[in-house]
Every structure is written in structure tokens, then in C-alpha cells.
Amino acid sequence: DGGITQSPKYLFRKEGQNVTLSCEQNLNHDAMYWYRQDPGQGLRLIYYSQIVNDFQKGDIAEGYSVSREKKESFPLTVTSAQKNPTAFYLCASTRNHNLGDSPLHFGNGTRLTVT
Amino acid sequence: LAKTTQPISMDSYEGQEVNITCSHNNIATNDYITWYQQFPSQGPRFIIQGYKTKVTNEVASLFIPADRKSSTLSLPRVSLSDTAVYYCLGRDSGSARQLTFGSGTQLTVLP
Q1: pLDDT in single tens digits along all 115 residues of chain A
Q2: Per-position b or e across B11-36, b if 16+ CB within 10 A of its CB
Q3: A25 and A4 in contact (C-beta within 8 Å)?
């Protein structure tokens, strides 16, 4: 079955450490996205990538970094510069960022806790 | 950015029809309006999308007026398992065409 895999499901880190969240898709989608969700809140866009070797900042990119070296993979690094990193992180993909009828497919998220 | 506005919460009883309306300004001309369902600690799941007028699938209907400034998700005969957060999604008509979620509507279905 095609889909998006996020790992790990739960992640714990000490303050001041960088941490990388994995996102892999086998849907052959060009575009991939990272969203952050805080308790009781909606989804906020961190970064997105329309195609391999390209990515753009979303609304809350500060303290995060991404890479898109392969079509299937879009890892997110939460750096020590991110002031409130504890959150639920969701990765998504779509066939093409510019197609108006191409819905997002989501992974099941990684819950990051930083103490 | 395309800002979507939805009611924060709604309650319903099992077996009733539920309508959730989303207002969206600055929606991109060629883009569809898409609705998602999210359960706690899971990723959102696609429900339905449409461009204008009415679309129906096996789980929901979507009504979009001609001006496309709003859309209404209709869930027929809800059950307890429909308790979830529902999001409408619009794409910004600006050059970045970012996919921006609204704050979502928490639907609680009561027995």
C-alpha cells in the first residue's frame, strides 16, 4: 500500500539538542510538507518542497531546517534555536503543489517532547 | 494568505445531519476546496473536495456557492465515531500558493 511513513511516533530530547524527524513517501508525489500542531490548535505550515532539491519556508520556519535530496524523503530538523519545540509534527505530500485538485496525504505524525 | 474561518465546536446527536460551514477569502481561482477529518494523535484524513455547486461521496456532501467564498460540509446521520476535528483547506491565491489550514471545528456526537 502506498502512503507516508513518519518515524518515530514518539521522540524525547533534552533541551539544546537538535533532533531530526523522518518522513518517507512511496506515492511518487512531487510535493511534501511539514506542519506543526499544538494541543487544541490547527495545523501551521513549517516548510514545504515542490520538487527535489527545492524547498520554501512556511509560516513558522524559524528554528527548523529541511532537506529534499530524494523525492521520497523530506526530513525535518528541529534545532536548538526553536524556542518551543514540543509539539505534534505532521508530514504530508501531494501529487503536485500547483494542481488545484490534488489533496494532501498525511502521515500519522511524530510527537516530540523536549525537556 | 487564504484565511479560512470555521466554528470552533459543534455538538450533535447520533443519527442527525451535521452541517459545518467554512468561510474562505482569497481562495485561488483554479483550486478545489478540500475537507479533512482528524482524530486525536493521528494525521488528518481526506474526506471530500469540490470546486463549485455540490459534490457527494459515500461519507459526505460538499456545497459550494457560485462565489466560492464559503463551503458547507454535510455529514448525514452522524454516529459516535464521527466525533473528530474537521478542517477545510484553501490555497492562497498569491504567488506562494501556500496550503493554509483553518483552526478546525471540533464535532462532538452525543448518544
Answers
A1: 569 999 999 999 999 999 999 999 999 999 999 999 998 888 999 999 999 999 999 989 999 999 999 999 999 999 999 999 999 999 999 998 877 778 899 999 999 999 9
A2: ebeeeeebebebebeebbeebbbbbb
A3: yes
**Neighbour tally for A24: CB within 10 Å:** 18
Contact call for A92 and B43, based on CB within 8 A:
yes
CB contact residues (below 8 A), chain A span 26-65, against chain B: 33, 35, 41-45, 48, 56, 58-59
Nearest CA-CA distance, residue B49 and chain A, Å: 8
Neighbours of A32 (CB within 10 A): 31
